[in-house]
Amino acid sequence: MSKMKVAVVSHDIAWRDIEENVITVADLLNRVDRDCDIVVLPELFTTGNILSKEDVTDLAEDENGIAIVNVQRWSQFFGFAICGTFLAKDNGKFYNRAFFAEPFGDITYYDKRHIRSNKEPIIVGLDSGIDLSPIIRFRGWNISIQTGSDIMYPIWCRATAINSDVIINPSSWQDDEANKNKHLMIARAIENQVYFIGANRIGVDNYFKYNSPSLIIDYKGMDISYQLDSKKITYAILEKEPLLNYRKSHDYQINADKFKLL
Question: Structure pTM?
């Protein structure tokens, strides 16, 4: 596909209430334009930020839980891919796990690497992912995923993005991080010559306020996102040919340093 329409759905995540969040997201997805190719949900879209180890134990799900079962059902019903993250349990460990669910049933996972910004490993006991995001080939585009604070680590982002056309970052940025988040998204888009989709939640929980906007940035660092009748849904059109032409005329990668990730 030479063009791809993407949307970000931002909702006020009901803290610790998986079923309520599933109902809210289902309603918002019904409002999304049906010609979208990808819809992105915020980080931990079914639980919100969890800062208690006991809550993690109670709320974490495996891949047959409420979150993923509904995500796959929605993707098949609406015909677009859905990306976000959920609180996952896997062989006695707990992850902030991203998913990319496709309409024909395929699903790809990525476990958030950098989880220390809010003392998550100390307070919550989450485990860091060890693998780079796999490159997801979807409708002729190469897509990779980062999550939240992964954006602050440019070497990790470069390694993730090197063969990508689009980076998706489901996030949960607090109000006081709005300016930082915007500039990090712009930087990651420019230096990696990719489209960058930053999907943030809205509202409040027991800890923070979240109104840092969701943005979709092009490979030149320009905000190309727009909203129609709802601030909860943000759209953009991604164009492949201009991206490839720009890379040919501005080949940053030819002199890029090579780093070995541990």
Answer: 0.95
